[in-house]
């Protein structure tokens, strides 16, 4: 039987913490709808207590998303949890994600709390979150540098209080893959079936994806990640890399799969790049501009003879249409509308009409309008809404 790894996307929360990546409510709604189309199991829509704008965006996303679970982050504080509970209230499937730091350095210098107080606060937070939703996730912030005995103690306590998912963040991207794997294995033996183990890996040493994959191999059944690997500092584990690694190396991930519709990966990546203005590096795995390009003659010749000589994945599988028809000034409204839908945007008829007028103006100046031109056009329209 197939085992599922849940994909928890935090582009709209941790991703938005990338310098320069802040998004307005309309932009977040566009991304949330596309994440749902991509098949993401849980969308972390923001941090409700962070600002009125974050609260409003989470609430609006909760009104329009009905297949994915909508989640808000909350510190282990009553006011944060209340804001999270209220923001996600309209969602069909909803989750509160509460956290507190568990590493000696964070407890001593950041929280200035004794370990016993941290456990007490965590229990109270989970119990309070349960008064809003049944689906509560608890994170041991900086678990990557926490002591195993303390992790087990706090995890047992929050499971008892009702947490359904236990997230193990490598908050500062410190762990190596084999260490991450060993930690998850030990925690899996300890937790058993009492809760789902999740991981949340940062990329400070470029190991976030490897750490996430080793965690899955050792029992994690939820992975937290972002589109294009956006996130604090060097970012979070990239969703597209985790999903395509699991799909491409079925021999290693025997029987384990995700719910992601991989054909929506490329459109989602482009949408996030257009909205945030943060372009993935050209050689970025899966979605970089060069990821499926072959420059050398030997490689080009090989691929023409047999695609698999130099390609381990098919561009079509991530939704990269190498033969996409370029639109121009003779293209009609119907073709234009279809293209913006394919690119992941959901617009009203009135918005489409306005965008189509702007498209025609641009098409008069530019011979060929690329998908990126259209994304730019639409994101400008959304930003000015
Ligand atoms: O990196 C981290 O520890 C986090 C938590 C809030 C889950 O983002
Ligand atoms: Zn994080």
UniProtKB/TrEMBL annotation:
This is 2-isopropylmalate synthase. The keyword rRNA processing does not apply. It is an enzyme of class 2 (transferase). The gene is leuA. Keywords: Amino-acid biosynthesis, Branched-chain amino acid biosynthesis, Cytoplasm, Leucine biosynthesis, Manganese, Metal-binding, Transferase. GO terms for molecular function: 2-isopropylmalate synthase activity; acetyl-CoA C-acetyltransferase activity; manganese ion binding. Signal peptide: none annotated. One of its GO terms (cellular component) is cytoplasm. The chain holds residues 1 to 385 of 516 of the full protein. Belongs to the alpha-IPM synthase/homocitrate synthase family. LeuA type 1 subfamily. GO terms for biological process: L-leucine biosynthetic process. The lineage of its organism: Bacteria, Pseudomonadati, Campylobacterota, Epsilonproteobacteria, Nautiliales. Residues 5-266 form the Pyruvate carboxyltransferase domain.
């Amino acid at each position: 039987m197939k085992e599922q790894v849940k994909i928890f996307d935090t582009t709209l929360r941790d991703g938005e913490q990338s310098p320069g990546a802040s998004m307005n409510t309309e932009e977040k709604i566009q991304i949330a709808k596309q994440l749902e189309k991509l098949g993401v199991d849980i969308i972390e829509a923001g941090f409700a207590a962070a600002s009125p704008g974050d609260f409003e965006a989470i609430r609006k996303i909760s009104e329009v998303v009905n297949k994915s679970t909508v989640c808000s982050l909350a510190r282990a504080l009553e006011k944060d949890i209340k804001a999270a509970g209220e923001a996600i209230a309209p969602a069909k499937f909803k989750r509160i994600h509460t956290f507190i730091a568990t590493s000696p350095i964070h407890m001593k210098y950041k929280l200035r709390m004794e370990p016993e107080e941290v456990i007490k606060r965590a229990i109270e937070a989970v119990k309070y979150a349960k008064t809003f939703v049944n689906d509560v996730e608890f994170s041991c912030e900086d678990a990557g540098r926490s002591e195993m005995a303390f992790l087990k103690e706090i995890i047992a306590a929050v499971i008892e209080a009702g947490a359904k998912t236990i997230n193990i963040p490598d908050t500062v991207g410190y762990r190596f893959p084999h260490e991450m794997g060993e930690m998850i294995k030990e925690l899996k033996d300890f937790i058993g079936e009492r809760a789902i183990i999740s991981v949340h890996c940062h990329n400070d040493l470029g190991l976030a994806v490897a750490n996430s994959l080793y965690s899955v191999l050792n029992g994690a059944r939820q992975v937290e990640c972002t589109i294009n690997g956006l996130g604090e500092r060097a970012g979070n584990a990239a969703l597209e890399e985790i999903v395509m690694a699991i799909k491409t190396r079925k021999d290693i991930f025997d029987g384990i799969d995700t719910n992601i519709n991989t054909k929506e990966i490329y459109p989602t990546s482009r949408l996030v790049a257009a909205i945030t203005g943060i372009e993935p590096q050209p050689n970025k795995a899966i979605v970089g501009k060069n990821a499926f390009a072959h420059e050398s003659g030997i490689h080009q010749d090989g691929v023409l003879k047999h695609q698999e000589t130099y390609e381990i994945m098919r561009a079509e599988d991530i939704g990269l249409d190498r033969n996409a028809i370029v639109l121009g000034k003779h293209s009609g409204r119907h073709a234009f509308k279809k293209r913006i839908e394919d690119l992941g945007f959901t617009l009203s008829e009135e918005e489409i009409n306005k965008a189509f007028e702007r498209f025609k103006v641009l098409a008069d100046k530019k011979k060929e309008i690329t998908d990126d031109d259209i994304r730019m056009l639409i994101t400008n329209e959304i930003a000015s809404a």
